[in-house]
Predict the structure.
Amino acid sequence: MENTFFCSLSTESIEDKDTSIWGYLRYETREITTSELMRAIKDKRAFAGVFNKREFTQKNKRIENWKQTNIIPVDFDNRKMTFDEFAKMTETAERLKPTIIYNTQNDGVKGNRYRALYILNAPVTEVETYKRCYDKIVSHWERVTGEKNKDNCGGVVTQSFAGAKDKVIYYGVTYDVKDLLGDGEEHRQSVERARADIERTPFLNDFFKLNVIEVIEKYIGIYPSVESTPLTQADEEQAFILIPDDYMQIKRYWYQTEDVLRGSTYTEIRKIRDGEHRRKKLFINAIIRRLIMPTISFNHLLFNLLYEFHHYMINDGNTITRKDIYNIALRAYKADLSMYEELREKQKKHKFIVNPAYCIKYGISKNAAKRIAIMQMNDARIGECYDFLKTEKENLQILRDNGINISPRTLKRWKERNGITKKRNNKIMS
């Protein structure tokens, strides 16, 4: 007999998530089995985790409202392999065989795009536990395929996911959290081995032997710079990229300087000097990197500190040595992250950034795109509240009740932009 779990499913199917309807979907939380989830995916229903309301819309999918989930999705985007090859790879996997795989709705339109779902026997109720499970699965498939994961939207607990395009395979295997994470012994042993094992790696030999420029040039392709939480890339038709609630970024300092010859100003990085707590900043930034990427290796963390020290600090006054940087990295790597959760709260939160792909496609500046982005987001807010079964007057009141004060003329323009006509309303109501 199959286990049951709670999941939120859209009340209607959706053929194309890039349409305006995606932002207006309504979700209903219900108890289902894994095979029922598979059928919902085949029916092109969207799914999400469990929130604080049994029935909800996009506006309710916020981190403070999230309660739990039994589903961990992992996207395989822009892969060279065909779906048949993807199916063979996952079907014969010795470890972490998915519960369900399918091709997503943009498959073949924006490259090869597939999704693997992992169903848990018990719900995950902690964001950190969810992210650790997700990172473990992603790291496993990165090692198997030799390719970096290109879309980490599955790592965001508030995300919703569209159903299949036309291919779904059900393996049926389910997991306990401990199956994905182990009992913590693996991490404990890795920390204990850090000082001894790391001595024998080629990277550490180069770290102490080569000059800074040589180390950076040799390893930048192996250990990329970790500066912020990766953002899900938006479609080039969307002027904004939403910033998730758990977004973190390492703070940098900039100043404007004058180009006397050209008579203009430009922005330049302000490097941190002796007396400005360089060692403390290196340690805190190492902790932030671990919060951003819980699976970061010691070597990766150490390289990032060396890169940061070279590019963003001045080694004057009380000189900082390579050994100092090594010890700071080791201390941060062995630190208990639960003691530093407050760093998440101290992060300055922005709602969105301008989508560079939109600016490139339409040849406009970021400032111009920002105005369009605000309009698009306002459109989405209206869409979250708009009820096709209500009159225009009733919808205006609903919008006001939700803090959106617009005129009938503005609502009319919104309906025109989104192709919502009286004829369509009548069709829906009938």
